[in-house]
Amino acid sequence: MKETAFGKRTGLWLLGLWFAGAGSAGWVHATELVYTPINPAFGGNPLNGTWLLNNAQAQNDYDDPDLNNRTAVAGTSALERFTSQLQSRLLGQLLDNISTGNTGSLSTDAFIVNVIDDSGALTINVTDRATGEVSEIQVNGITTTP
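Predicted structure:
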């Protein structure tokens, strides 16, 4: 009697396995495993780079102790940056005016620039206010349009 119950159970179990496999059209399904890296440095999608960098920076709790020292020495205020940009703009405009035959000068706290155009011979005198040193730059062959 025990053998008959064991045989029935085994038969039912095998029959269940067969139906489970037949329902999915086969016993075993497998595909090739393909590794795709995430980091673009190792062949991953380059669009992941920004996301990975932002996550790393968000997790970074290290504070550089020398950062405050460097900023205090080399940092510039907004007014200093504005003044520097304005001086660059005015100097550029002064040099652009040479092409129309105009000369001029620019004076700041640090230097004095005199631009003189003498019929295509351009002379630029730069005077350092702190030391009094004068640099002269001469350029020949510039054609001006009056």
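Summary: Residues 34 and 44 are 13 Å apart (CA to CA).
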